[in-house]
Every structure is written in C-alpha cells, then in structure tokens.
Design brief:
globular, 155 residues
Length: 155
Amino acid sequence: MRPGPQAASALRIGPPGLSLGEQLVLAGLRTWARARMAGDEPRCLIRPGLTHVASKPVASVFTAMMEHIEREATRALRIHCVACSGYSEDEQRVVLACGVARASLGAAFDLMRPLVKAPETPVLLARTLNVALSNAGYPLPVRMWDDEPVRATIH
C-alpha cells in the first residue's frame, strides 16, 4: 500500500459517515479557505497534499475547480475550520455536487447554482474530480435523497 492511502485512511474530517473521498474534498475546501484567510497561496498547500494522498490528477482538478468557484462566487463561502466535526451548507453543496455530478449534472447544477454565478465549469470540474478520485481509489458516493440530512453547525 502506498503512503497516500495509509494517510487517507487516518483522515477524519467533518461529520461521521463521510467517505474518504468526501473527506478529501472537504479537507481541500477547508485548507483552501484557511490559506486564503492567512494570506497564503492555497495551490502551494493543496497540490502536494492531494498528490501525495490521492494523485496528481486529483490535485490538479481540485485546484482548477476551486479557482473557478472562487472566481465565480456569488458571495464568500461559509467554510468551517479543518478540525470542526460539523459541515456547513456551502461545504455540503460542493461535496455533494462532486459526488452527484457523475450521475446527474442537473442535480449538481442545482447544488452549485447558489454558490457561483456560472455553475457550468465548476460542475464539469466536479464531475472530472469525481472520476479522478475514483481512479485513485476514493470513489464518491451519490447522495441525492437522504432521509436524514447532516445538520450544519454554527460557530
């Protein structure tokens, strides 16, 4: 087993029940936001980490998706700190869009539309990220109609 999968198996980000792939996306979102808040360049933190844990394609596609989300954002995204066991609505929207994009682009558009002015590119990148994560051994589940939504936490 490569070091990457071993590192990912120890990952515990967000609420219980998230797959490792979902936790990787959530950790990337939170790391990106934290870097921006600190005035650091998020690509320098994200690319090496995701390349090590998953693959270079995962790191590249995630970075491209975040660049588009950031550029097209309708407002500042609500992102929790890395250690938070909660899950903001904005985080849920991005993570779920990545998972559902492979099965239903329409559902992914609906999830991303409140976050970005033009959801087309971020959704297509979310779908590509889904494929890249699956190829790296971290398939994202399709969560479309869950009876028990995870509650957002308030800080």
